[in-house]
Please model this.
Amino acid sequence: MYADIGKSGVRSRETSSASICIHLRFLSSLISSRPFVLVRCSFWSRVSSRVRSEGGSIRGLFLAAILLFSFAVNRAFAYDWTIIKENGRDYIPLTDLARFYDFNSAEFSNGVATLNCPAVHLQCASGSRDLYLNGLKFILSLPVLDIQDRLCISRLDLAKLVDPVLRPTKIAASPVRTVVIDPGHGGSDSGARGPLGNEKEFTLDVAVRARDLFTKAGFNVRMTRSSDVYVPLESRALFASFQPDAVFLSIHFNYGMGPTAEGVETYCLAPRGVPSTNDSGLTFADFQNCTGNVRDPENIALATAIHASLITRLVVPDRGVKRARFVVLRNNAIPGVLIEGGFLTNPRDALRVASPAYRELLADAIVRGVMSYNRAIARGSLRSLRPPASISAKPPPVGLSETFSGSLIWDPLTSNDYSRDVEP
Ligand SMILES: [Zn+2]
Model:
């Protein structure tokens, strides 16, 4: 049932009537052992090739020493995770999460968990799927549970959301050189109809603006449509799947859920075995492996980078990073997101979307989100060991492990100026 999460190395330690606690010896068995081994191999090959390329010089040895240091302080090699079985699912106490990721305070009060460290502020609440990282909203696949007086997060959310977001440098991903921009709808398919225009016109306008900005920034750009034509969803995903070093950006505007529904949400593909955010229960289809699931870590990392950029730059209500199995995400072989840039059925959003200035800002935020993603996944260079100068991150405390080298270069994890409280 959970074949996408490695089970090797799991051993039973204690059993009670309410739960079975299992401890894991290695993080690699929590997330998937094979990619982790590959990371180790590629790390060593990087070090040796870097020394070779520097001709064995002092500079090369110095660089190798720094990379070796980050390797040595990485605590991921030995860690006992407590796994609690509940309703047929695996859960991890948040106290374990706090220890592993070096949070230096963890408070639990009235069903709300608040974890803090210099770089990250995490909040979530019992019974809720809302998770806030430095105030940015994520919708978990499964709710946080109070099990035997311990707040727990699902193992799946830990592996498929928390870890890739907190440690993007662990993701085996290529830097993005090409973007496939997908303006939603077109031709006979108008999409959502608003009082000030139709979705298909607004999506194309934002896509053209983003195309120009991406081109100016040095990216290759491919468009699934650049005029008012109908393109089947399957064709869009197929077209994108053949682009190397590329990401897929589908642009849409929202409708429905009553006139009060307002704000921006960013979707990426649901991991195998969990329902989509907007579905109430599991279906058979939720257990099928989709083409896009091979990109799970990149999908959530890209969604995080883009959503953070949208929320900080557009100053609109944050509806969260969500999960879905839309055809364009499901059938896509490259990392992808689907952006809902506002509700055409909400008076405030409809006014915003109709404004060219807002659409330019939206396009700019998307471009900056992809740049943020590129910075976050950058590995194997000194750049991954320190935040870029353009982001005013506090310097990491002395002795900080590589655990946080990635999180320091995420936009959402470096500023906390849009934080809010989690509703209990
Ligand atoms: Zn749409």
